[in-house]
Amino acid sequence: MFGKLKNLFGGDSGIEITAPVAGKVVALEDVPDPTFAQGILGPGIAIEPTEGRIVAPADGTVDVMFETGHAVSMTTADGAELLIHVGIDTVQLEGKHYKACCKAGQQVKKGDVLIEFDPAAIKAEGYQIVTPILVCNPDAFTVEPAAGGTVAAGDALLTLKKK
């Protein structure tokens, strides 16, 4: 009961998910892939990276580090299931230009490096590097953007509130 009262009077500012990479914030509906743009995998936001390093956006546990290094999923300490997908259709690169820096089951702290990648090389291969950051359990959280414009890795990106 007190938790609900706290929420009513603004005591709960929500769970902060930070930017996993520096770059320009892109609305999910503007991502050039219908699976992401339509929110099929979950709500969220995307970033057009200006660097080649993905860091943990919160403390938690890595659930899946894709063999190709192009994507990682994790569960935050607060129970949010996140997917970070570097680029569009980049699974077709079969790991070229990506380096996985974590593995499934690994505990991570906000800011730990998860993936390193070469943005210029990926673009040279003809792929877009826009990076969706999704909440894959939207039944448990409301998801609100906390940033627009450009962000640095570690800046507030999304605010989640438990339903």
UniProtKB/TrEMBL annotation:
User: One Pfam family this chain carries?
Assistant: PTS_EIIA_1
* The entry's keywords: Kinase, Phosphotransferase system, Sugar transport, Transferase, Transport
Which superkingdom is the protein from? Bacteria
**Compartment(s):** Cytoplasm
Q: Where is the PTS EIIA type-1 domain?
A: 33-137
Q: Does the keyword Mitochondrion apply?
A: no
Write down the InterPro entries for this protein, in alphabetical order. Answer: Dup_hybrid_motif (IPR011055), PTS_EIIA_1_perm (IPR001127), PTS_EIIA_component (IPR050890)
Q: Keyword DNA repair, does the record have it?
A: no
The name this protein carries in UniProt is: PTS EIIA type-1 domain-containing protein
